[in-house]
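the two lines:
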Amino acid sequence: EAGVTQFPSHSVIEKGQTVTLRCDPISGHDNLYWYRRVMGKEIKFLLHFVKESKQDESGMPNNRFLAERTGGTYSTLKVQPAELEDSGVYFCASSHETGVVPGNTIYFGEGSWLTVV
Amino acid sequence: AQSVTQLGSHVSVSEGALVLLRCNYSSSVPPYLFWYVQYPNQGLQLLLKYTTGATLVKGINGFEAEFKKSETSFHLTKPSAHMSDAAEYFCAVSSANTGNQFYFGTGTSLTVIP
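prediction for all of em together
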């Protein structure tokens, strides 16, 4: 079974440019999450999809970030225009169940490393 | 509000020595606690988790952690370090209130010295 896959694995862009990160969750997982780790700091929640609907987007830093999950399959996270402070690792994760319940596991991808110069 | 503190951003141990990675949490409701590991060039992998029941939780690769409510701690241990344990380790907390939103610590990088 394929895990959570993310693309690109690394991206270097100039300030003001646009970057789109893609996440393919594990097949059959309705729940998809985005997290971000800025260098040296904690991994922070960005948002949560249940199928194609945004369940919780309280962690999105500002309106330069746009997440979509059309059709309830893969998701994209667009940063436009990118700023220096957006540099970090963007993790995507997925789970079958909603909520933290015994037996439910949230699976993370390898992350997309974004560097804004 | 929930938060996690991981003491020591870098820990070094000799091969065969005890591994102890510290995690303290803050939560106003019963917590769910997790340890994730990130090996170089890989994603976050679940090591173990505590939700309810037995407070001593065993995970993969010989790791275990004990939930101590009185100390608000969930320290990760392994009796004997192996070279392959070198990685970054993240403690995280969630709860029934926060649902799918995990609160992570800043991570601890473990170096194993041969």
